[in-house]
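Tokens as discussed.
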């Protein structure tokens, strides 16, 4: 998934998200920081939402069932992964991927998962903290091996 695909996808879901929240077009436009006219154009498919508005929708409506069914349980993780071309640092604790994630591989206390909707990859430790996210499988597998090597060398020093 890339930026353009996410923009198209979210643009096509804005009306459904608005209806899910029972917002008028005027209220939704105000929340998104755009004019009602622009919102109507997006909802009718005449124009696409901008990247900034897609980020806003993902942040402000991250609990939306419509949004989660389109991007998975953590829409902002997908946005951040695309924006930064991958995430390579320990992050907040996740739920461990019970619903939206499939385990791909594991090494030591780390496991590689793939999101069943967005198809992006992430590495979690045994406490469910995210260490890495990417849309590139080979890159994610390489990072899993590196994390395991570091963990193994730290264990051998003890």
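Sequence:
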């Amino acid at each position: 998934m890339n930026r353009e695909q996410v923009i198209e996808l979210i643009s096509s879901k804005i009306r459904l998200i608005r209806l899910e929240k029972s917002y008028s077009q005027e209220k939704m436009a105000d929340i998104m920081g755009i004019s009602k006219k622009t919102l109507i154009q997006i909802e009718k498919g005449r124009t696409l939402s901008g990247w900034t508005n897609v980020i806003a929708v993902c942040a402000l409506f991250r609990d939306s069932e419509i949004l989660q069914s389109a991007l998975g349980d953590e829409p902002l993780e997908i946005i951040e992964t695309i924006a930064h071309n991958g995430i390579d640092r320990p992050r907040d604790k996740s739920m461990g991927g019970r619903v939206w994630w499939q385990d791909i591989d594991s090494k030591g206390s780390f496991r590689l998962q793939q999101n069943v909707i967005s198809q992006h990859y992430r590495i979690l430790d045994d406490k469910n903290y995210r260490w890495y996210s990417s849309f590139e499988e080979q890159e994610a597998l390489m990072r899993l091996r590196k994390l395991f090597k570091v963990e193994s060398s730290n264990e051998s020093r003890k």
